[in-house]
Design brief:
Blueprint (H helix, E strand, L loop, with lengths): L1 E4 L6 H10 L4 E4 L2 H5 L3 E4 L5 H10 L2 H10 L4 E4 L1 H5 L3 E2 L13 E5 L10 E6 L1 E2 L14 E6 L1 E5 L5 E6 L3 E8 L2 E4 L7 H15 L4
Parallel strand pairs: 1-2, 1-3, 3-4, 4-13, 5-6
Antiparallel strand pairs: 6-10, 7-9, 8-11, 11-12, 12-13
Length: about 210
């Protein structure tokens, strides 16, 4: 069973539908016991960093997420969910992120010809052997919607990058903690393959 963390963020339902399409049992929840007994956990979301962190604390979910990661339950952050697992964001100065990984979220630099927010399809360049990308060809295209991007402190955890005015750390992996800035649930067959790979991780197959 996949637990999707419900903290009133946008885009959660589309993630739920993608896992259901793949035949996976999934539940939207903020119940500690359900989350800690899930085979895998997903933190999706679209919205503002500071508002999201306030809700995670209000619902007691920040502590539960830390517990789950310490238990090594496979965990996937998507879009805002990636940003929240790092330390801080330009979007909300003074607000601490979950701090599960070291790094910061920066505003995409203003450049002539580049629209912000970045909305659309970009190709990925894979670094290392990220388990989410097994079976995918180099330069696979995925769908992004964001104005802020990750700069991870340790580039050794970065499994994919893309270019949009700067080099964007598009996906990371450390142990059973995964995250991607793009939206696999909106990335057609490529995105479904990424979610299938995450399901395989939850079943101990990857």
């Amino acid at each position: 069973m996949i637990a999707i963390i419900d903290y009133d963020a946008g885009n959660i339902k589309s993630v739920e539908k993608a896992f259901q399409f793949l035949g996976e049992e999934v539940i939207l929840t903020r119940d500690r016991n359900v989350i800690l007994n899930a085979d895998g956990i997903v933190l999706p979301g679209v919205g503002a960093f500071g508002d999201a962190m306030e809700k995670l604390h209000r619902y007691g979910l920040a502590a539960v997420i830390h517990e789950a990661v310490e238990k090594k339950i496979p965990f996937l952050g998507i879009c805002l969910g990636l940003q929240l697992i790092f330390e801080r964001s330009d979007e909300s100065p003074g607000v601490e992120g979950l701090g599960l990984l070291k790094g910061e979220i920066l505003h995409i630099p203003e450049e002539s010809g580049l629209k912000i927010p970045h909305i659309g399809w970009n190709s990925l360049k894979f670094f290392g052997k990220g388990r989410l990308f097994g079976g995918l060809e180099e330069s696979a295209y995925v769908y992004f919607v964001h104005s802020y991007y990750l700069k991870a402190e340790d580039e050794g955890i970065v499994t994919a990058v893309t270019e949009y005015g700067t080099t964007i750390h598009a996906s990371v992996e450390q142990g059973n903690l995964f995250a991607c800035q793009f939206h696999p649930e909106k990335s057609s067959d490529t995105g479904l393959k990424i979610l299938r790979n995450f399901i395989s991780v939850t079943k101990g197959e990857l």
